[in-house]
Write a structure and sequence with these properties.
By secondary structure, this protein is an alpha+beta fold. About 25% of the residues lie in helices and about 10% in strands. The protein has a domain of about 110 residues: Glutaredoxin. It contains four helices and four strands, in the order ααβαβββα. Strands 2-1-3-4 form a four-stranded mixed β-sheet, covered by helices on one side. Helix 3 packs across helix 4. The longest helix has 12 residues. The relative contact order is 0.14.
Length: about 160
């Protein structure tokens, strides 16, 4: 880090920095180009749902489990193939994700914007998730994580609260 940058950071932290002026006259940026009629007709619709499949891998001696052992996922592959076969390719996006912080429930899948969390999902469950949830709009209850287990450090399935990622 340069001496000048360290000085500016020190001033900012001490509350002594002067507001910075823009160098030169303001510049007007066009945020998006106008879309012509032909472009609008060929534009793909926004995805209706995003499905995130945890691909996190931890060392074998880690205090929390991994959702995959090698960063690969038959579950992700199954969800992708089955959603395409169901005609959802342009409506549902199946994504790989890093840690979703539900390690004790892994492999973990979350569907947005529904905010439906699934745990202990196996590749064999993919067909049910696609048919019931992504096509019919009915979450698969047997795979859903309990409300008290999502976004909390006190889930009964977790070890001690001192365990961190």
């Amino acid at each position: 880090m340069s001496r000048r940058l360290r000085g500016v950071l020190a001033e900012l932290l001490a509350g002594e920095a002067e507001p910075m002026a823009a160098p030169g006259p303001p510049v007007m940026l066009e945020l998006s180009a106008p879309v012509g009629r032909a472009q609008e007709e060929h534009r793909l619709p926004a995805f209706e749902r995003h499905v995130f499949v945890c691909h996190n891998v931890r060392p074998a001696d880690a205090p929390r489990p991994s959702c995959t052992t090698d960063g690969k996922s038959d579950l992700h592959t199954q969800l992708q193939q089955l959603s395409r076969a169901a005609g959802l390719a342009n409506r549902v996006r199946i994504n790989k994700s890093g840690c979703l912080d539900q390690c004790e429930h892994g492999p973990t899948v979350v569907v947005y914007p529904d905010a439906i969390w699934y745990g202990k999902v196996r590749p064999e469950d993919a067909a049910e998730i696609v048919a019931e949830h992504l096509v019919a709009g009915r979450p698969v209850e047997r795979l859903r994580l309990a409300e008290g287990c999502v976004n909390t450090k006190s889930c009964p399935h977790r070890g001690s609260e001192e365990v961190k990622q």
